[in-house]
């Protein structure tokens, strides 16, 4: 195991409230690990050094370290020290870990992977929705689509309805697990500036054409067309943001 050089781990710009000291320490450590300042196999400083670095008690440090162990970022070995785990052991869907990884995703490789997962799941859900939809569900879906048509020049309102439109289709499919995974992935990705590049007006115009194609395929109960339309829409939207 590599012995890491002394690294300043505490983010002094992060305001500390007593009720969330352990959470704040954990966030700073996660950022140090994800950014590579603490690479895999490096040994963390001892408890006393961490207490001094963060200005907190041993109880707080231990709570933070246990949280990171639970998230898969640390390996705590009694009498051997605490070691940074390889990325393959990290919990990829943990909110704090995912936020940090997106923040440091300079090459956009992680966002590429998230879009790929979202595309695979949501296109299947769209196909399922086409085979399960009821007249009431169709009416609600098309009502959201009509509302989107009215706010094409109002990006904030349109994007809020965009989320509602996609969520409604996933709800129609009836797979709560897949819906939760997609929602978690997309909620983290869409707050990142790296995920929202490009010319927004052009993106909304193109996205609305895609939304209309998805809605039409589901209305027609065409499972294959719904899958294809959703896949095309998600990938085209990402490519326009990424370029």
UniProtKB/TrEMBL annotation:
Coiled coil: none annotated. Gene3D superfamilies: GntR ligand-binding domain-like (1.20.120.530), Winged helix-like DNA-binding domain superfamily/Winged helix DNA-binding domain (1.10.10.10). Residues 19-87 form the HTH gntR-type domain. Keywords: DNA-binding, Transcription, Transcription regulation. Pfam families: FCD, GntR. InterPro entries: GntR_C (IPR011711), TF_FadR/GntR_C (IPR008920), Tscrpt_reg_HTH_GntR (IPR000524), WH-like_DNA-bd_sf (IPR036388), WH_DNA-bd_sf (IPR036390). One of its GO terms (molecular function) is DNA binding. This is FadR family transcriptional regulator. It comes from Actinacidiphila oryziradicis.
């Amino acid at each position: 195991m590599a012995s890491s050089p002394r690294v300043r781990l505490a983010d002094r710009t992060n305001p500390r409230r007593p009720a969330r000291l352990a959470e704040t320490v954990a966030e700073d450590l996660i950022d140090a690990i994800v950014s590579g300042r603490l690479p895999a196999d490096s040994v963390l400083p001892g408890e006393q050094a961490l207490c001094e670095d963060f200005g907190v008690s041993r109880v707080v440090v231990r709570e933070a370290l246990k949280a990171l162990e639970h998230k898969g970022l640390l390996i705590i070995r009694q009498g051997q020290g605490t070691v940074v785990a390889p990325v393959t052991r990290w919990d990829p869907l943990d909110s704090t870990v995912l936020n940090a990884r997106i923040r440091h995703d300079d090459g956009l490789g992680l966002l590429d992977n998230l879009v790929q997962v979202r595309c695979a799941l949501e296109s299947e859900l769209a196909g399922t929705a086409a085979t399960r939809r009821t007249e009431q569900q169709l009416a609600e879906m098309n009502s959201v689509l009509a509302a989107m048509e009215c706010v094409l020049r109002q990006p904030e309102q349109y994007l809020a309805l965009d989320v509602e439109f996609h969520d409604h289709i996933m709800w129609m499919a009836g797979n709560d697990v897949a819906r939760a995974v997609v929602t978690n992935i997309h909620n983290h990705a869409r707050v990142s500036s790296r995920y929202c590049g490009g010319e927004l007006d052009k993106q909304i115009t193109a996205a609305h054409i895609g939304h209309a194609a998805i809605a039409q395929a589901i209305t027609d109960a065409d499972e294959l067309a719904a899958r294809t339309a959703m896949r095309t829409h998600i990938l085209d939207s990402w490519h326009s943001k990424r370029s």
